[in-house]
Amino acid sequence: MDRGEVVAIIPARGGSQRLPGKNTKLLAGKPLISWTIEAAVKSQSLSMIVVSSDDDEVLRIASEYPVKLLKRPEYLATATATTFDTMINCLDALKEEGYEFEQVMLLQPTSPLRTFEDIENAIRLKSK
């Protein structure tokens, strides 16, 4: 699956104060997180796609796709935990497994209208 040196990280915690379970709620017939995963999977520029979550249902949905699953620690699953800290946690976990990447792309599951073309274009912009 070596398609480059870019890892995409999709952080999807289970707890949401305003809309509980939002990442697993259906949007146009599929879970919200599926839209982001499917766009990432269609991209030809990502060498790895990682879904980080504390939620077993999010991880179950993500397991239906060719992505790496990372169970997020509790301290990074709170309303005060930052996306930055979650990203660092993912990169540290990947490094422990022998993976290192030149670029990291954050793909929020709450942006379901993003397409694989958007991902490709963002990577091309970074390369210029």
Strand content: 15-25%
Principal-axes shape call = globular
Strand order of the largest sheet: 5-4-1-6
Which residues form runs of ≥5 with pLDDT under 50? none
Overall structural class, as computed from helix and strand content, comes to alpha/beta
Give the rounded overall mean pLDDT.
91
**Spatial gap, N to C terminus:** 24 Å
Reading the helices and strands in chain order gives EEEHEHEHEH
Q: What is the tally of beta strands?
A: 6
Assembly state: single chain
Largest sheet: 4 strands, parallel
Q: Tell me the Rg in angstroms.
A: 14 Å
Number of helices: 4
| Helix percentage | 25-40%
How does this model look, in words?
The protein is of the alpha/beta class and 128 residues long. The protein has 4 helices and 6 strands; from the N terminus they run E-E-E-H-E-H-E-H-E-H. It has a 4-stranded parallel beta sheet, with helices on both faces. Strands 2-3 form a two-stranded antiparallel sheet. The two termini are 24 Å apart.
